[in-house]
Each structure stands twice: as C-alpha cells, then as structure tokens.
Amino acid sequence: MQVADAAVNDTRPARRVLIAADKFRGSLTAVQVAERVTRGLRRVVPDLEVEALPVADGGDGTVDAAVAAGFERRGVRVAGPLGQEVTAAFALRGDTAVVEMAEASGLQRLPAGVFAPLTASTYGAGELLRAALDAGARTIVFGVGGSATTDGGAGMLSALGARLLDGGGEPVAPGGGGLPELARADLSGLDPRLASVDLVLASDVDNPLTGPTGAPAVYGPQKGASPNDVATLDAALAHYAKVLEEAVGPRAAQYAASPGAGAAGGIGYGALILGARFRPGIEVMLDVLGFAPALERASLVITGEGSLDEQTLHGKAPAGVAAAARAAGKEVVAVCGRLALPPAVLGRAGIRRAYPLTETEPDVARCIAEAGPILERVAERIARDFLA
Question: How far apart are CA 334 and CA 301, in angstroms?
Fold first, then answer.
C-alpha cells in the first residue's frame, strides 16, 4: 500500500521519537493520538524511546496540551455562551497561565444541534481570564478558536469590568445581536491588573474584525448564522468598533483591521483592546510547551491532525511543528485521518511522508469510529519504514 512520500531517499533509522500531534477532531484528543502512536511504534520496536508532547494551535484542546506538558489544571465555574453555568478550566504553571476561550464560550458548550449566532456571549471567557489573574498569572496565553460567539469580545470586556451601555444607560443585550443598540462604552472599570500582565493572543487565523474576510462573513455560517445574520453581525461589529473608537481613540479602528481581530467571532479584537499582542497560536504554544528542547532530543518527529489539507498550511499545528523541525534539521512524518495534500506540497511544508488512516481502512465511518486501533496500525507502518 502506498503512502504519500515527499522524498524518495532512504534515511538512517531514528531511535528517539517525538510525537507532537494535534487532536483528531471528533475521534481522538491530542493526548490519545500520542498514546496510540506510541503503542503502535513499540509493537515493532519494543525498546524505542518515545517522548510525547501533545500540541494545539490555540483552539479547543489547548488547555489539555498544556496540562500534558506539566501545567496544573484549574477548574472554575463560569458562564457558558448562553449564560448557563459551566465548569471550565485553565492551565497554570508558575506565573504563566494558558486560557482557552472555547472552554467557556466554545461550540461544544452549546446543546447538541443548537446554534445561537446572535445571542452567544464571551462573558465566560472573560471570567476565565479573571480567574487566571486571581491565580497570580503575570503572563496569559489566550488561545482563541472554536467559538460559539460573534460578539467581538463584548461579553469578555463586560466580565472584566467594562460597561457597554445603550441609549438609556442600560447594558446592551448579550451577543453580537445586542451591539446595534450600543451607545457608549465605558472602559474605566476594567480590571487594573490587566495593565501589568503580558497578554498574548494566540490564534491560527489572521482575519480582521469585519468585511469580506471578517469574523461574521468567514466564520458566522459555521455557527449557524444565515446570510441575513451575517449582514447584521458585520454591521453590528463595525458599529461596536466605532463606539469603542470614541472611548479609546484611533487605536480601536486600527485594531479592528489588525490580523487576529476576527479570531473566534471577534474576541481577538476585544483582546487587542485589552492590550494583547497577537502571535500565531502554534508558535506560542510550542514555546509554552517546551518544544525546542524536546525537538533537540529527537531523531524523528511525528506530527498530525484529523485532516491534512490546505488549512493545515495556514497556521495549524502540524505546519508549525514541521517548520520548526525542518529548521532544526529533523525529519518529520505525519499521521492524519484524511490526506488532501500532494507529496510535493507536503515536502515544501517540511513533512517527509504522511500516513492517513484511510489508506489502512478505506471506510471513512470506521476510521472515525475506530480511529485509535487504526492509528496504532498506522504507527506500526511508520516504525517499519523509519525505525526497524
């Protein structure tokens, strides 16, 4: 059975493997991917040295990746996207916190089959940030992605002390659908600790807040927004940015056009208003997780995610892992559920060979339902090809 191979030359066997893969969405967490790959490799090479470093790009799974790397999980009760109380978590090590907005405000926090494009709020994400401050964090990596929301971070700002008021001086309704009524933004009550914290906006997208490539147009439909909803939300966020410009000056307009402002329904914009600096999510997470020293110890790197496709090349975890490994002169192979990239493109991304589950099990439904055992068989093939 053929595999996608970006090169034809044989290489010397590698004896220490670093597994730095993201989740297979809907099938396996990043931790489970590492466990299954390790199991398969060791069936062929029982004494193989394996180091697992599950990775994430700032979206859902980011806290889990940090905990797997030695951070402490901290649970906290916060508001979900519809206002219901949920138990969310952030990760803490020393004075560095990893906060994942999807833990509080992600699509997974909505009831099955329910979307709320106009009313879902990021208030709980702001509560998570406040909990990290309460825990003594001086650096906060704020991973954004997988959101149920398109409110420009308005709920988050409110949770941190901002007052977003309508013409009658009352708080506007939650969600992007309430922002057309915004008449005044008072940020004087924002938590003063934010001024002395290094807040890093970690995202795998660089969209602006509004317009054809903005948050509502590009990501709104994924959250249940109809074409009319998209138009409503885009106008609402543009109005929101205009009102914030009156409150904080020209930088509000600059932030709206900045890369990352449109991340996670525009919560990136709210984070920039708070003073965050934007960095590609996978770069931030590799730094936080200690990837560089682990890479130095490795002879072969195995990365991957559920689908290796065009999106992978634009800031997703496997592309970031492969770029760092290539710069260090390390060979990289990838595992995935499905593969939609030709060998030449894989090679340019720094991936020597890709092993999709669908080449071992052509039935896609079985690949999803039985991803773990199939991934172990794929890992056996990697071991025979590169390690035995």
Answer: 8
235/252 Cα distance (integer angstroms): 16
- Do 149 and 276 belong to one domain? yes
What radius of gyration, in Å, describes the C-alpha atoms of the chain? 22
Q: 117 near 62, Cβ under 8 Å?
A: no
Contact 209, 237 (CB under 8 A): yes
What's the one-letter identity of residue 283?
A: E
List of residues 6+ apart from 327 with CB closer than 8 A? none
Residue 289: CA atoms inside 13 Å, Cβ hemisphere, count?
Answer: 31
The parent domain of residue 347 ranges over: 4-53+295-386
Q: Answer whether residue 226 is part of any domain.
A: yes
| Residues 24-81 pLDDT 10s | 988 999 999 999 999 999 999 999 999 999 999 888 899 999 999 999 999 999 999 9
Measure the N-to-C terminal CA separation of the chain; round to a whole number of Å: 18
Angle between helices 317-327 and 281-289 (to 10 degrees): 60
| Phi/psi at 133 (5° precision) | -65, -45
Q: Clarify whether residues 86 and 112 are in a common domain.
A: yes
User: Are 66 and 209 members of one domain?
Assistant: yes
In a domain, 357, yes or no: yes
The tokens for 2 are: 């053929």
> Do 77 and 200 sit in the same domain of this protein?
yes
pTM for the model stands at 0.90
Same domain, 264 and 157: yes
